Amino acid sequence: MKKFEPGTHRLHAVSIFFFTFKFVKDLLYPLLAVIISTIVRGEINLLWIIGGVVVLVTGSAVLGWLSWLRFTYRISDDILHVQHGLFVRKKLYIHRERVQSFDMSAGVLHRIFGLWKVQIETAGGSKPEAVLSAVSTEESERLREALYGKGRGGQSDPAADTDEITSEEHHAIGPAEAQASGSLSTSELLPAQTTIQAQPAEPLASIRIPLRTLLMYSVTSGRVGIALAVIAAAYSQIDDWLSESFDIWNFVMNSLGAASLIWVAAALLFLVWLFSAIMTTIREYGFTLLADEGKLTTQKGLLERKQASISLKRVQGLHFKENAIRRALGYASVHVYVAGSTEKYEQSFLLFPMIRRSELPGLLEQFLPAYQLPEQIQGLTPRALPSFLTIPVLTAAVITAAAVLWVPDGYGLFTIALPFIALLWGWLRYRQTGWSVDDGMLTIRHGSFSTHHSIVPKHRVQWHALATNPFQRRKQLGTLSLALASGLIFVQLKIRHMPWTQGAELMGWLRRSSSANGKSHTRMG
Amino acid sequence: MVIHDPQQRIDEDALKAWRLGAWIAAAVYTVIIGVLIFLTIRFDWPYWIAGAAFLIAAVVALFEIAYIPVWRWRRFRYDVSEHEIDLLHGLIIRKRTIIPMVKVQHVDTKQGPLLRKYQLAAVTFSTAAGSHEIPALLESKAEQVRNQIAKLARITDEEI
């Protein structure tokens, strides 16, 4: 065996299990094929099958053990060296400066042993560059410190902190409580902020979602809203049918079938809703946002703990999302657009799942001081309204007309609501669209039933365009779009049907900024 | 606020290249309609299917050959300045696109067989949020524009 260089490490021995599991998974399909073929041929030989499984598992375990033995890493001069590979020896070098994200997660098995899975990504990579499947908490901290700036500090043992509803939580929601109780005086807001800054641990600031808010978040997540609406609709139907059925006994017998069918459907939907709410609660449990020097870190999870970090340098914009139900409750979620690959292929990074609108300024001040929700949003002129209504309403009307004409037994009449929904949708979109310019930041509001605010620093705009179609030209309107790098691809934010002159003005503003952005760099010319 | 439109045009030979492309497309339509006519006769399909397809193809081909290249050529303008690349394009939806020079990450010339036939090339440049192109310039001009952009867009900062 080769001599170990000093500082060379192996993963925690639990990794053997993960490597083994991977081999088992890879070999499972060939094995299943063999087993099924023996069954099909009617030559079921129990000995062969059990023997096969035993060989597979022991073989995988040996290979897993060898893989673990061959997987070594060390850090020297700010470079992570990883060597791995069973047959083909692979070497990987990642320089600290190239590290873009350092994510940690801990599944149930990890947590039993107090371990973390570490994923390190660099620019341009679509998959995590380096995956250390199990390292101890101290080791993960050491790696993080060496490769991803200052360690976060105060890292609690992943196996021990699930039920920790800390005093920190109460401090963090201080502003919310002050405002929830109806007193909005600034004097009550101040102590809360100082408390947060006086955290004993190293993070500059941290905020943890209270359980109550998390539950509210879970039951109001998107799909759930739809399920609820369907259940409500079904319930009103059942109610009608039941009240009718009390009069005529015969009718009960007939309608019972239909009614119970709807009950079953409603119960199923309810279960789906309950299930998704429970899953969301488990996944997002104890959601905590921490601020470090130049970094934001989120931690979450009841069973599987996840920790993801983003560098502030890569934040391209803020996305403040209020879905209809949450807006009614006064809550919203905060996302950021982050360039490069962040959480898998998601477009925006969830910074905080649920926050009172009134709490947002405090949160931004601590975690993203450059961003502010503007007080006033410039809306559209009424002459833009037809542009929002015409196409949806016409489309819906055509569908309705076709359905009424051709769907038999008058079921097509159900579609009569469609044009009205389209009308409402278009009108809401018209009402929601707006923008605000303030000190190098552009805020775009859009949405229909939900409200979205996207706040973008002008120098983050990758390109912008002002487009006009013939209808818009007649009314001197235009659609301004701007592109931001986000996730692995990009997002286009649009202000639809804004007055053309104002669009041109915004464009001029964006152009000025783009040249101003270049002036800090020396440039030949 | 007055925005001055960009002034540079793409090469006039672009018309020839696009027209040739449109002729090729028309040939493909002809084949499809031939197949449709065959199917109509062979399986007694109603005549209006082939008839409608023929009409649509004829109108589309006419526009693609006679009008769209001219309109497209007339509409497309570009400018490359020290700070930005400025594009004006689009027949029905007119679009003015500004790409700040500092955001350009990569610039390239590219040439399909049609463009090559007329010694033309397209200049494509990408940002962290998608790419854009100037569709048809003379090869020498395309190279000059590419080098100009590459020089101006020298990536000086790692930040996106």
UniProtKB/TrEMBL annotation, chain A:
InterPro entries, alphabetized? UCP026631 (IPR014529), YdbS-like_PH (IPR005182)
In what residue span(s) does the YdbS-like PH domain sit? 68-146, 291-359, 430-497
Keywords in UniProt for this one? Membrane, Transmembrane, Transmembrane helix
Residues spanning the membrane: 12-40, 46-66, 214-235, 255-275, 384-405, 411-428
Superkingdom of the organism of origin: Bacteria
UniProt keyword Transmembrane helix, yes or no: yes
Quick check: keyword Transmembrane helix in the entry?
A: yes
Q: Where is this region: Disordered?
A: 147-168
Q: What is this protein called?
A: YdbS-like PH domain-containing protein
Organism source for this protein?
A: Paenibacillus sambharensis
UniProtKB/TrEMBL annotation, chain B:
Keyword presence, Iron: no
Q: Which domain of life is it from?
A: Bacteria
Keywords, alphabetical: Membrane, Transmembrane, Transmembrane helix
Q: Which residue spans traverse the membrane? A: 20-41, 47-68
Report the InterPro entries cross-referenced here: MFS_trans_sf, YdbS-like_PH
Q: Show which residues constitute the signal peptide.
A: none
Occurrences of domain YdbS-like PH (ranges): 73-149
* rRNA-binding listed as a keyword: no
In its UniProt entry, what is this protein called?
A: YdbS-like PH domain-containing protein
- Print the organism lineage: Bacteria, Bacillati, Bacillota, Bacilli, Bacillales
